[in-house]
Task: structure prediction
Amino acid sequence: MMSKSLTIAIAKAKCPRCREGNMFPVSPFSYRKLTVIHSRCAVCDADLIPEPGFYDGAMYISYAFSVALMVTSLVAINVLVAKPELWMYLSTVVGLTILLMPAMLRYSKTLYQYGVGKLKYRGF
Ligand SMILES: [Zn+2]
Result:
């Protein structure tokens, strides 16, 4: 039987109501269809976009991800490199941001849907 724990459902970006249907048409780490989100769950028909602009609030979570990534990178470079230079900071932060952008975008929307959305888990 498939596990339906909250942590795994969020990690796999599953629908909050059934924890089976995908919220996004592609993997959370894919660069394709970056802004596309299913309007309805394919499994339980939950409304994943309850109103226009619902996911606008997810940008606050995305911003927190970006700040966390930047602070972590800067601290790591300061700890790992004896005499860090500006280009090291810039290239690391820009590189990691480009690399993790799809995941940060999708997980900010997923966390927003789980936190603010009105869909409650309903096991079938
Ligand atoms: Zn569902």
In short: The CA atoms of residues 9 and 19 lie 6 Å apart.
